[in-house]
Amino acid sequence: MNEPNRTADIIVIGAGIAGASVAYELAHRGMSVCIVEMEAHPGYHTTGRSAATFVGCYGNEVIRAISAASRSFFDNPPPGFCDHPLLADRGALYVAGEAQLDALDDFVTEPLNLGLLERIDPLAVLEMVPVLNAVAGAAYERDAQDIDANAFLMGYLKGFRDAGGILETGAEVRTLIRRAGAWAIDTSVGTMSAPIVVNAAGAWGDEVAYRAGTQPVGLVPKRRTALTIDPGEPCTDWPLTISLDETWYFRPEAGDLLISPADETPSAPCDSQPEELDIAACIDQIERVTRIRVGRLISKRAGLRTFVHDKSPVCGYADDVDGFFWLVGQGGYGIQTAPALADIAACLVIGEDIPKDVQVRGVTLESLSPARLSCDFL
Ligand SMILES: Cc1cc2nc3c(=O)[nH]c(=O)nc-3n(C[C@H](O)[C@H](O)[C@H](O)COP(=O)(O)OP(=O)(O)OC[C@H]3O[C@@H](n4cnc5c(N)ncnc54)[C@H](O)[C@@H]3O)c2cc1C
How much distance in Å is there from the Cα of 285 to the middle of ligand 1? Predict the structure, then answer.
């Protein structure tokens, strides 16, 4: 086996936003932490392929609570975290057709959405997004934001290194064996050892569990496609525009327009690529709901949004083996929930309680625990 032979208090598997953020929090609590990432670059998989938005009216109660608790970090990151704001005003527009007007009423009056949404007149919608075809009704989330996802990830990694953390890239974790109170971890660049591992391997989370001989939690990676196009007119001021039933969305991205069919096709963990059928479906949807005619694709990408069945994250120690901590299942919300989820995870890893600011929002150990899934899944 090759060098290095490394020991740490904690080894974090995966340098996406989940691994980077929890490693940062643990290193800042005085732990010696090593992140092990199989790719040459951090953020290569889902984190580098997101739509990078912060949307309050998204996800279940647990997601909304963790997103809300994360907002202050985005607004006021720690000194030196990055040299420009992480958020930029965008707004999110939820549009409904004639047949969806009752659903729109329910959406606007849903208790979780109170204070976040306002009804918008269809004519005002067309002023905001002039390319839209007929809209019967709409709601607007004024405070939805763009996230600078790359600066966010790099901020965590820089802060992690500044606190003494080590990032090993090109290092795939192959096997994990529990021996004498520590994990002996065989990676493609050598052996490592730590009493605690944090499984932040995203779509590969259950695969890592198999390699450690612990029970999986039933992760389902789901492919989502994102294309960028030239919409044929200036779009930088358009809001994130989503169909109420989430069957398509678009938003400006670096001067172009990102369009997505909001697909959720189950997939094995892999280097996800867009499928021709999804690209065609996306173009068809966008051409039906707008007057845009899609010419050349400027870019195309796909990423895996990974869920367990209740669509809440999995954050807590496995109960069938010592020292194996889960931080997976962030689905389509892993960027906007990262600050508070990393804080929760770091507290639980070192044996503390869930932070008070998250508790008061109703997040419990049980709502995140891997144990909630084992009965359903096995
Ligand atoms: C199209 C799209 C749009 C999205 N839009 C948004 C959005 O607007 N807002 C939002 O908050 N979220 C969004 N998301 C979701 C968000 O991107 C994810 O929830 C988040 O990136 C998940 O981060 P992660 O660190 O868990 O996974 P990843 O970024 O996939 O990181 C996991 C890492 O683990 C590594 N790994 C796996 N196995 C091993 C191993 N055996 N050894 C070593 N390393 C290993 C992988 O190489 C990978 O780098 C979107 C996702 C997609 C695909």
Answer: 26
Confirm whether pTM is higher than 0.90. yes
Predicted pLDDT at 245: 95
Strand partners, 194: 183
Q: Which among 308, 245, 325, 322 has a CA at the least distance from the CA of 62?
A: 308
Tell me: pLDDT of 376 over 90.
no
The CATH number assigned to the domain holding 124 equals 3.30.9.10
Yes or no: say if 291 and 133 are a contact pair by the CB < 8 Å rule: yes
Do 134 and 230 sit in the same domain of this protein?
yes
Task: Give the chain's mean pLDDT.
Answer: 96
Same domain as 201, residue 155: yes
Q: Which atom in ligand 1 lies closest to the alpha carbon of residue 53? A: 8
Q: How far apart are the CA of 45 and the centre of ligand 1, in A?
A: 6
How many of the other CB atoms lie within 10 Å of CB of 30? 11
Interacting residues of 114 by C-beta distance below 8 A, sequence separation 6+: none
Q: Read off the pLDDT of each residue in 91-108 and give the average, rounded to a whole number.
A: 96
Mean pLDDT of 219-223: 98
